[in-house]
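Weekly structure sync, notes
Attendees: PL (lead), two postdocs, one rotation student
Agenda item 3: pending single-chain targets
PL asked that the sequence for the first pending target be pasted directly into the notes so everyone works from the same version. It is reproduced below exactly as submitted, 399 residues in total.
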Amino acid sequence: MTVLCIASYEKGHEFLREAKRQGCRVLLLTSHSIKDSAKWPVESIDEIYYMPDEQKKWDRQQTINAVSYLARTEQLDRIVPLDDFDLEMAASLREHLRIPGMGETTTRYFRDKLAMRRQAADKGLNIPDFVHVLNYDTVNAFLDRVAAPWVLKPRFMAGAIGIKKVYSKVEFWKIVKALGDDQSNYLVEKYIPGHIFHVDSVVTEREIVFAVASRYGRPPMDVSHEGGVFTTRLLEHGTPLETSLLEKNQLVLAAMGLLRGVSHTEYIQGREDGKIYFLETSARVGGAHIADLVANATGINLWAEWAKIEVDGGAGKYKLGEVQNNYGGLLVSLARQEKPDCSAYNDPELVWRMEKKHHVGFVIASPSYERVQYLMDQYLERVCEDFLAVAPPRAKPSE
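Predicted structure, written out during the meeting:
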């Protein structure tokens, strides 16, 4: 089997390794701009091809032409996007070449924040009130009906990139008018204060065979806009909160039509009403090293499981690896130092360290929920004092 992986950014190393372990011929199509900086696991890749990306974006027709040319000599069996920004391109290629996998319509539910909200509303799921930034009368009616603040969100960005919290109609329309023809690529929704959670799942033939629920420390949007330390930690097993999140996650992924693969889905529990609201979902592994947290706490590597599922292709031979019932916490921060000295962080529960200039990051894992909570609180305080640096928020993924 030949698998073509698409990655406009460097990620998914373990997917590439597992695909090779499964006996696949592994091809990688990636951005020319990262040719010299990316450290791909070349021992697991048969061929690497590069797309021009002078504007940090691939041209759709040019990519279709390039992959069609490649298909003259390669029998492509799977096309897999390794990053959120590659989902639409992979879907277009599958549609054009008639290769099995998620098509363009379903992909919308996992990339387009408007499409996933409309689908969730149609299926009766609990979501924050929202409106498409399209018809001005309809938008004004929403702003009059729903009290500020609101959240203005780009439909096709990932994570907290490009999201703005808006506090008045004057401010809102000033921002929207500045968007010009790009306005219809946005939606605005009610801001609901509360704790934000994520559920990371493995799905095969529409069945969720693995799911783990975690809670962010500060909301990712706040960290992105205001700076600070990014943290998340697994929830205590068997609690009503964990049970409710896992149940709602089943409803969400069924509503969006995920046939097979992995998903990172986010929810918020309203501070005022205690209700859990669906925020957004994806058909990919969660970013910000969440895969490292899940792998070290549960023994399940989401990238590797995804590769196995893609190779299986619904044949029914896929079996989930053994799950460990440990707890874990993840902490990531920008650092003032180019190469932070983290030698003083040496507890035996520290099982993963981030190796990146001007960054510090840890994963803590333990069978004890209380021990993870204690160490996460301690490390958060120490990292703020020892390393923390703050950078301006990104408006685009390339920034």
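Discussion points:
- The mean pLDDT is 95.
- The longest strand covers residues 194-204.
Action: rotation student to compare against the earlier draft before next sync.
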